[in-house]
Every structure is written in structure tokens, then in C-alpha cells.
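Recap quiz, item 2
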Amino acid sequence: MSLSTAELDAIYLTLALAAITTVLLLILGTPLAWWLARQRAQWPALIEAIVAMPLILPPTVLGFYLLLLFAPDTALGRAWEGLTGSQLAFSFSALVIGSVIYSLPFVVQPLQAAFQRVPARLLDTAATLGASPLDQFRSVAAPLCRRSFVTAASLGFAHTVGEFGVVLMIGGNIPGETQVLSIALYDYVESLRFAEAHRLAAGLVVFSLVLLFALYRRDRRDSWRIRA
Amino acid sequence: MSGLSLQLDCAAGEQFRLQLACELPATGITAIYGPSGSGKSTLLDCIAGLRRAAADSEIRFRGEYWQRPRLFVPPWQRRTAYVFQDARLFPHLNVEQNLHYALRRRHRDRGVSLAQVVSWLQLDDLLAQHPASLSAGQAQRVAIARALLSAPELMLLDEPLANLDHAASQQIIGQLQQLNTDLELPMLYVSHDIEEVSQLADQLVLLEQGRLAAQGSLLDLCSRLDTRLSREDQAAAIVVGTTAHHDARFSLTELDVEGQPLLLAGPRLAPGQLRRLRIPARDVSVCRQRPTDSSILNILPVTLSDMLEEGPSRVLLRLALGSQFLLARITRKSAAHLQLQVGDRLYAQIKSAALLMEPVPEDG
């Protein structure tokens, strides 16, 4: 039982989307999480709430607003088309943007929790030894939180792989462009091709289980590292 | 070169406020002594820049402002090193990497080398270990080594011996004294342990409830009657003597204190060394005539320079021994009986005196 070209395309697309999203999330989420972890004021709680929204909102709500935002007649849509020459809605790029927003809490929250547990006294010590704030982050906080980066990246990746509602709303179902695994699975079910549906569904179950097992098993080892 | 000039106003916590203005020497070891909650650590934090004193505060070190209105030099640009009560080694680095951390970021180019520091503090066997596997004393030695490697111009130590056993403390005290002399590195040393302070400090700053209570040389402050040191139960004068000969028959070493012999029980000491002695006030009594048949060995001629009544029953005496001073705590009844007057010539009977440093091996 080998995979069809369409299925291979969907797998490739899903992995590419998850990988690009994860990289972007680490780049954006790390400074955001560090900033949130170091704020003592009340108002950053609003930013935290916004970051956490995708956890509780139906993905279709996010997808619906993004669809409106990406439409060719909005400022963003026009600017995108002016820059790239192609429409933003129903494109791979739209999926990336949607996924970054949708998976943001899965990356920011573990990082923020880990950063909050970096002892301030170690950062102070680094400061008296001549380390600037960026240096303190790079040489003390980041290594102490190394496993949280792995956790954050894994969760962000896995969650993006499992995304459905947002993708359906803003990506449509274009093979090779926006048809990711969860959509392909949905397609099979709609057309009553249960054997193929089983293959994809079981594959996703095994993938998620293996990834989470590896993460949780690792969390039971090592003592000095900061966990999230 | 001028030292460290401070004019600080720093609120720390709800109740507490540190307010003081003083000049501290940028040489030797200056102990900052006071009860807990008197602002000792807050003072060091302000100097290191880890805590920001109020905007009108001023901190100037060797002519350079670290803080003044509209200027705040961040801690990583002040040339201090800070040794904390907990060693605060970086847990993700081994000992050698912890040392390299400081070396790579050193405050100035000239400074001690890794090899020197490792040999001074005897770290050879520890280099590959991780902080979690070190004893408290070992960890603190690594922390001191790391602080030295950052090539500071001022070393701040906040109760670095508080978690150590006696032997480890004594070892580190000896090493700190040696380093202070060899490197000409000024140190500010926070402690609430007068014994430690007496061993180490040249200068003393007394803090009480966030205020400067007194400041001066250790020997002077310890023998004054008007500080909280003399009010403490274990009040003691510190005197300096030179080791003279050793009496092997009775295992006694004679020290020359202001031309007077002072005998100490204990091991042989090489002659000609300067030594600090701690003489508790409660172990000194006075008499008008030199007793001849006393079991007390050390009876020195002194002059009563000052006296202070302590409550209804006790009197504290300050006794001049040449240019140095002893303290004696006696009963008010005895003082009345002897009709003591300032200026009286007396004999001080010293029941106990202790060397402040255990003898260091000759090669140490």
C-alpha cells in the first residue's frame, strides 16, 4: 500500500508549513516570551491574553477574520499583491501567517514559563561579571532553557501539523499549494474513501504520540535544566 | 587616588530605607558590619548597580561616577566583582567554564591569569566538575576565583562564609587576606560575624537601620565605648602584637604588644610576625597593684582612658596599652570599690586572649 502523489504532496506541504512556521515562531516568540517574562507591570497581561486566544477560540473564528484580512480588496491584500504579484488569500503564504498566529501560544507559553524560572540572581551575577542584557540572555538564560526551546519548537511543529480549521478557512483545498494532511484526510472522509482516510489518520496519531512521548520522557531526566 | 565616595538614598522594601553618605578607602579590606536588616546587602547592591538608588544619589569610584543625577552606569560596565553568600555558579557550565565565563568578559586587560587563580585557590582537581557536585566551601572558592578573573577594581563580598564550616571559612579568610595584599585589590566585605570581621578587616563601617553608625579603623572602632560593638555581649578589643620567642617547656608563645610580653598557649609561631589578637572585655579585670601570686599569666600596666556605665550593674572600661586599647567589663560595685577615675594607672589581668588567625603553615 504505497502513498499516492497527492498524499506525498500533502505530506511534503504539511512538513514544510510546520517547519517554516516553527522557525518563524522561534524567531518571533523568543523575544516576546522573554519580554513577557521580565515585565512586572499589569498591562502586559493583555498581550498574554491575546497570545493565548488561539487556545480557546474555535480555529474557524481566527480563520474567518484572517480571510477577511487577506482578501484582495483589503490594504494588506493589495500590498501583498503589489509586492509579490500574487493573491494572499488561498496561498501557502497565507497558511504560514495563519499558522504562526494559531500556534503562537504553544511556543510562547513554554518559553515564557521557562524564562520566568531563570533565577534573577544568576543574571545579576552575569551582569557583575560584565555581561550585557543580551549577553546574559544568550549565555545564561538560553542555555538553562535549552530543553524548553525543544519543547516549544516541538509543540509548535506538532500543533501546526494538526491544524485544520484555520487552514480550511484561509487556504482552501488546492493540491500542492494549500492541501495539507488534515484537509486531505477530510477530503477522503467526504468522499467515503475510508481506507485512505485511515492511513493518514493513523499516521498523524503515531506521529503525535511518538513526538510527545519523546518530549515527556526527556523531561524525566536531567536535573539542573529548567523545564517547561 | 581617591576611594569610593557614596551618597545614597535607596528604598528597599516597604519599611526599609538606606540613607548614608561616606567615603570608603579603595585599599585594604573594609568590613561592613551590622545586624541583619541594617542595609549591608542593599549597600553592596547599590555599589554594584544591581539596585538603583534614588535619582539624587551619587556613587563615585576613583574619580569616576557610577551614579549621579541623570547618569546610571549599568552593572556590567562597573568594574566590580561580586561574591555572594550562595556561590551562584552557573549550573550549565562546569568549573572551568565558569572561570572562562569571567575571563572572556573581564573588566580590563591586565589581570590575573587562570593558572594563577587556580593555583591560589587550589582548584586543579575541581576544574572538570559541575557546580552541583561541589561542597559549599569548594563552590565558594570557585566563586571567588571567578570574581578575580573578571579583573575587577573593587571586590564586593556579601557574607561569603555564611554557609561554610569553620575549617573552610578559615581557609578562605587566609586566602582573601593574601589576595588582598598580593593583588592590591580593595574589598568591601559584608558580615554580621564580628569574629570574621576582626580577622579580615582593616577598616570598619557600622550600619544600623540603614544609617551609618560609625566608621573607622577596626582597631579603633573595636575599642571605642560609644558604638554598638562595645554593647554586645562578646565585645572584644583587637590588639596587634609581634611574635617573639616560644617556650617549648610550657608550650607558650610570647608576643610583644607595645613593648609588653603577652603569653599565649598553643603551637609554635615563627618569630617576627605581626598578629592580631582578640581580647574579650569580659575576660579582662583590673587591679590597682600588680598581683604577685595570680594564676593569670598576662598582667599588663595600662591607663584608664574612659569608662561607661552599662545599666545598673556593669561598667565598661577602655584601657590604654601604649597606643593600643583593651576593653574590660567589670561590675559597678568593683568600679566604686576601686574608686576608678579616668587617668588612673592600673594593671589589666587578661584571662584569655586568642589569635585571630590560626597559624598558617610556613610555605602558605
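The first helix of chain B runs from residue 40 to 48.
Confidence is low (pLDDT under 50) at residues 359-364 of chain B.
End of item.
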